[in-house]
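User: As part of a screening pipeline, I want to sanity-check one entry by hand. Below is the sequence and the SMILES for magnesium ion. Please return the complex as structure tokens so I can compare it with the automated output.
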Amino acid sequence: MAAVSNYDIVLLDIEGTTTPISFVHDALFPYVARNVSEFLTTRWDDPEVQIHVRTIAQQANEDVKAGIASAIAIDLDADSADEIRGKVLANVDWQMKADRKIGALKGLQGYMWRFGFESGTLKGEMYPDAVEAIKNWVKVCKRQVYIYSSGSVEAQKLIFGYSDHGDLRDYISDYYDTKVGAKTEDSSYKRIASDIGKQPAQILFISDNVLEIQAADKAGLQTIVSIRKGNAPIKDDCKFKTTTDFRTIPL
Ligand SMILES: [Mg+2]
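Assistant: Here is the complex for your manual check:
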């Protein structure tokens, strides 16, 4: 690999970078699909569940107004609890099948994942070389590692806190999600650099998504494309550095 140099900060994507893309589709989403009905039945009176129900109802009603065919209106005042629960379940089902990335759905998923991770049913899957590199960067090189992922910060902390390599949160200085901006916008990376208090060039960003790498490069960050089994293939004319194993990245 061509040299990367003089970076103080490592900024990591998760899916396709530290963690197999399949983890989300083979573990996280099925966990929600399998358990959502039981969750909404046994925890219906939990105030947090009610917050997610209200948010999903609001989104569903906006979707109906916007003319989205699969959306069903949910009337929190007129519908019975059973009707609301049934409509919320149907709503979550179609949103997940459509792989919708909407805040209302993410909120409920995040809530459920917390139980899944805390109970030991779910474990964040990490590439061993990524874990080794993260530990070396922090413990040996005294660099700082940050995460930037489209999954919510809460979900990111669960994946690193309950990983198959133990609790890795001590190694992570902070977490960013799309609240800081889209991962394909260079302004997001500038915002992260200024938030960390470093020049963009002092930050090394690693991601499997070339559009994200392009945006980070435009913002002045150093970049490496993560090549992993199961990732979308990278074009032959890709001008960015690539790695298949984090241990080959110069410390
Ligand atoms: Mg990714």
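Points to compare against the pipeline: The helical segments are 21-42, 47-65, 81-97, 103-118, 128-140, 153-161, 186-196, 210-218. The domain at 9-19+124-248 is CATH 3.40.50.1000 (Rossmann fold).
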